[in-house]
Design a protein that fits this description.
44% of the residues lie in helices and 15% in strands. The chain is of the alpha/beta class and 315 residues long.
Length: 315
Amino acid sequence: MSARICDLFGIKYPVIQGGMAWVATAELAAAVSNAGGLGIVAAGGAPADVVREEIRKCKKLTDKPFGVNVMLMSPFAADIMQVVVEEKPAVIATGAGNPGKYIPALKEAGIKICPVVSSVALARKMEKDGADAVVAEGTESGGHIGELTTMVLVPQVVDAVSIPVIAAGGIADKRGMIASFALGAEGIQVGTRFICSEECIAHENYKQAVIKAKDRDAVVTGRLNGAPVRALKNSLTKEYDRLEKAGASKDEIEQLGVGGLRRAFQEGDTKTGSLMAGQSAAMVTKIESCADIIKSYFEGTEEILEAIAKKSEVE
């Protein structure tokens, strides 16, 4: 079921690491790739020269395939795409927009294209434009999100396109992975779980906030201004809610979040920092190596599948 993804990206396991701004550094991407998955360096809002540095650092840390995630709403997106074409990582992932105009140059450079989509329409458009695979990301995910859940989005995208579909959003363990495959996905994207990896250089306070999170702690702000973001609730998310309900302007609300993710990631500010994480945070209970995290998705899957088969036979 996962052979197409593994063959496409040249990886051992059909596990793609989420392109989390600030969090997905060269260190994390290389560790995931070295463990047999596909590590992703996130460009986030960084300028092109910083992204080039991260790509080159990742090349020194791994000889395995890895990718780069480009947030298309970044003011540096065009320059970063040029850097990607020059540096030639194995894969380019995109989010927050349509990468169609960049696809011809990426294909000419031999780079596999895997956009993140939150709708069937965009998935179809990406296949038509030449994408090699798509990540169907449900609203359970952390960071910028769409409206549809993973459970309903993935099968609809699978039915709509012929290229491989990677499921994302709320996939914290082997049960989520098996469910994703049952929905028709051929791989999974994991983000929040990798925040709590040994190789992730996020501040310890950030990691502990994820570990301590309860089932209702990953909340969404920004729905009213059309830019929903999921993060762990704290003073910052409460202030977002207050401003939105008070009818503050979009600019005023966006200004509140400037530097928020950096404060959480680098400084460990869990009160006014943006602790971006998905709903699966409540299922993350410890810090492990990337290799052990990936391994945990596959160990014991046979027993789960056998139990499902036996239950079906009885019914």
